[in-house]
């Protein structure tokens, strides 16, 4: 890679961080409808940024939900075309009281930038634009063809992206899909992710008496919807988190000895994780390591529960309703639709007497795996080694990027997941941040990657 | 009873309801500290009302919490002295969205007055003042001596009343305690309550990882505090609501065949209750009727639960915390302190691995029973029959008035529980109301009672 690309990144560092702060200041929360105007603002901001970076055909393209930002640079004939996917929407910020600085007032301290979306995924999407801008402005050209597809509904399960990709197959056609939304192993330990868990889930609404009742007058004679919900949820997992839904594990591909060895080689420090999370003990299915539990095993988690009195002090109420939100992380070859059906059946079978239960499924995502020996992945590995000085590990990941499967299915292209976030950067939680060491080395890695990939037959 | 007392009540009906509306408009919620000014406003309002009704020594007496309103009329030598207890504080109003009219804008429709506190207990406390005022203004005197003790912390467990009663034993000394805060059996079916359940409870705070985590990255490897809480709560009751806390039933006095027959005689229409509550089925311990389940059996209810994401849509979080509030209704001879200890032990023994649990007890109340053949109770029975034309049933009640035991213990006086609310008047729930038929007949009953009791040696 040419020396003045590096110099440019160095010279522009402060300006880049100022731009990023501007982007992170927009509260583009896709889960809450009151933030619709900020979604538009973030999409427009991105379009302007892509334009000024030198991309062509910049468009904010409508969908049935939030818009997709598209841009391209296609002036490298006979060279591969890369589709870069990212998302400009972010998670909600509650509990807001636990943030040290406001989530939408980006703050740099300890060489980290703190803001909702700093790591997931505004920061990493922004890096892609800046890396390519650096090459374009210093060399006057790019070594390969680039297309951007940046959506605004990833954090709510990308309900409209499948349709968008289907309709725009020609526009999005490429040789490789690159996504930076997966974590590194640790500081100084880059990783290329070769597998993602899928996702499905549902809201469970339990209804008891028509209105809240006095627990003294009716307690003991009327089913309490919270107790009913508690019993229902407790029936879904055993004490080690093994899932008790009939047929849940039927399609799970068992872990191979080779995978087990590969993950043991990573020497995950479980005690360090335990200390960082400040829990008395880690937890999970017997016979599996922490990496195996989060990478190759499916899960079922209650993400939220609520019912009855939540205020200060005591209210002796027998509530009318109780609610829970659950999601399952899925692994190959579990089918999200099939798992939702199994959940429904379980709930129906285990609904306690005296209440009615309603179930509303959330959007779904397929689990996914990509072969380690693909040339586009090997090229990424070389790029990491040049920037970080160490080989990237090959990993899988516990999270879900549902659209990966969509791109693979509709555009038939391999996926390279090269993310720069650290595992403890609080994505989806208060005090989300992004370490600027990986902002700097990540920009370098991406620049190296485009030159490596330009000379790789994919 | 003299004819012009009745006439007075008739003539003053509209004025009385206007006064009551004024009283009900004050949002004197004791559970929420932001309502402190309204607590004071309600106490002052009562004092003014007692003053203008003709009582002496009207005082708003400070406690370590909310003040107690005291007043008396002691000009009937050689006649019994009655202590009337009531409370001017009310329950919180959430979920506010389910009220048809605002909780603190009293509205009369279908001959019912709708407001928080209409029935529990502002409406009934107010009736006591108006009944005595009617006698005093039409006859120029009262047939017996009266003391009022109206507190402002009943809905939060009366944390300061024990001390208040202890310090003011002489001031409050009386021959009979009368309280109107228990329900009738049904429209036209008055009841004198001879037993109350006690109360104890606690808040359970489950703490997992130090902050909310991404359910994809840590799900399956870190205990989810909601699952831990769900398991803990589910361990406390079986599927019929029978409580699984070791030793919980040890002190429960078994129901006698006589009581069972007395309650069967009441011919409780369980199907009607089921329909009114709009539940698919009633519920409870096998071998007990609904009345037995709510009157003579102890219970354990989750009054509130919360943790993780409660907003619109989905948030794939593994939450840091989960919380529940539970209360037990106790029956003679369960000791509240002892039951709290049993709960603590159970929680300690059943805390799932990977989380820590903190327990905070709420205030407690003893269960209570009073003999049916006491002359003050028999006089009340005659008063009801004169006003309603039917004999009052003798019942017990599922709710708790913790201070009843306090009065009994410190002042050594029998308690007459003669309430005028209907069981479906939504105390503690949205759309609380009070039927005006019982406002009218209740005023008459109380007037009759004072004349009956004046001629009864107690």
Automatic annotation (TrEMBL), chains A, B:
Highest taxon in the source lineage: Bacteria
GO BP, one annotated term: proteolysis
One family name in Pfam for this protein: M20_dimer
Gene3D superfamilies in the cross-refs: 3.30.70.360, Zn peptidases
Domain Peptidase M20 dimerisation: 194-354
Keywords of the record: Hydrolase, Metal-binding, Protease
GO molecular function: metal ion binding; peptidase activity
Stored InterPro entries: Cyt/Met_Dipeptidase, Peptidase_M20, Peptidase_M20_dimer
Lipoprotein found in the keyword field: no
Cited NCBIfam families: PRK07907.1, PRK08201.1, PRK09104.1
Protein name: Peptidase M20
Organism (species): Effusibacillus dendaii
